[in-house]
């Protein structure tokens, strides 16, 4: 069994080892939330809801919002 | 070590997302923008004369710098999220190399994040959509997106559970069927939105939606290939590189 696992060759590449969920979690929580905030500003800010007043953000990403499929106005 | 691998994959995911975003931006500019302009032309021809708003951002900025900002941030953000999902999927979804896992994940993300919500609530050009219903439309679109992504994750876990009993092939078929059966009622029972003006040109609407879909195909296809390449090089370095990195690791510093 052991020798079967430890012999990657050119034709049978080594299968990737799994990354422990504990190592992923802190990155996933912090960067996951950060990425979602970015998506919110591209996709929905100053549309249905607004964090920043005015319509500058909405107007700036207007074309991207339409073409990326988000409801714009 | 493992935390460093996650960090390295995350950075590569965001870089690959930026690269794929550039490709999508080219498609958006050449395929999408002409249709946005036609739709705005329709909007202006049909707006009452006194309703012309003051431009805060000019059309030439919206269609270049503004478009680039939106598309590139979208690429980086989804690249980062996809890289984190990749860290979980790697070695867990089946017997796939790092590169193949990346392309598989990218394809599933295209379907779950974009195509499934698009089939219910497709992208709309300017002039299509009533401003009074923006809240409802935004909620429904994000609901559909979240639902589709969560169901795709559930289907993947289901497929993995069934695989030992049914074999990989039938487990995958069963998982996809389960996804379709559960998403079906959402398609059937969520409210229908049709706010296309009666005389809006059908060809402009069709071409706008095709160009929006093309952008996503290019974005996720490009991401899968770019990120797969970067991940493969990180996780399976070539022998010469492996020697070098081992030497670096062994060097005292």
From TrEMBL, chain A:
The keyword Membrane applies. Keywords: Membrane, Transmembrane, Transmembrane helix. The chain crosses the membrane at residues 24-43. This is Cobalt transporter.
UniProtKB/TrEMBL annotation, chain B:
Keywords: Membrane, Transmembrane, Transmembrane helix. It comes from the Bacteria. InterPro entries: CbtA_put. This is Cobalt transporter subunit CbtA. It comes from Streptomyces iranensis. The chain crosses the membrane at residues 9-31, 67-88, 100-119, 139-158, 170-193, 213-231. Signal peptide: none annotated. It holds the Pfam family CbtA.
């Amino acid at each position: 069994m052991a020798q079967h696992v430890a012999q990657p060759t050119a034709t049978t590449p080594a299968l990737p080892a799994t990354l422990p969920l504990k190592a992923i979690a802190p990155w996933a929580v912090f960067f996951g939330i950060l990425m979602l905030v970015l998506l919110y500003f591209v996709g929905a800010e100053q549309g249905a809801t607004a964090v920043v007043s005015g319509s500058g953000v909405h107007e700036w990403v207007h074309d991207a919002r339409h073409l990326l499929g988000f409801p714009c106005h | 070590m493992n935390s460093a691998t996650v960090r390295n994959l995350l950075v590569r995911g965001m870089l690959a997302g930026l690269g794929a975003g550039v490709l999508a931006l080219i498609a958006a500019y050449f395929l999408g923008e002409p249709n946005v302009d036609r739709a705005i032309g329709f909007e202006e021809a049909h707006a009452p004369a006194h309703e012309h708003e003051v431009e805060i951002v000019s059309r030439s900025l919206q269609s270049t710098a503004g478009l680039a900002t939106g598309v590139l941030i979208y690429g980086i953000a989804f690249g980062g999220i996809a890289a984190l999902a990749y860290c979980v999927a790697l070695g867990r979804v089946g017997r796939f190399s790092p590169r193949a896992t990346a392309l598989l994940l990218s394809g599933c993300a295209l379907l779950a994040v974009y195509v499934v919500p698009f089939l219910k609530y497709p992208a709309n050009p300017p002039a299509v959509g009533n401003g009074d219903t923006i809240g409802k439309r935004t909620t429904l679109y994000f609901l559909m997106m979240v639902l589709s992504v969560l169901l795709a994750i559930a289907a993947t876990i289901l497929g993995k559970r069934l695989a030992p009993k049914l074999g990989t092939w039938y487990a995958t078929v069963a998982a996809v069927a389960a996804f379709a059966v559960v998403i079906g009622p959402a398609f059937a029972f969520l409210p229908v939105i049709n706010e296309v003006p009666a005389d809006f040109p059908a060809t402009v609407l069709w071409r706008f939606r095709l160009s929006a879909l093309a952008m996503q195909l290019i974005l996720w296809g490009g991401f899968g290939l770019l990120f797969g390449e970067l991940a493969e090089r990180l996780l399976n370095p070539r022998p010469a590189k492996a020697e070098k990195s081992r030497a670096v690791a062994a060097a005292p510093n």
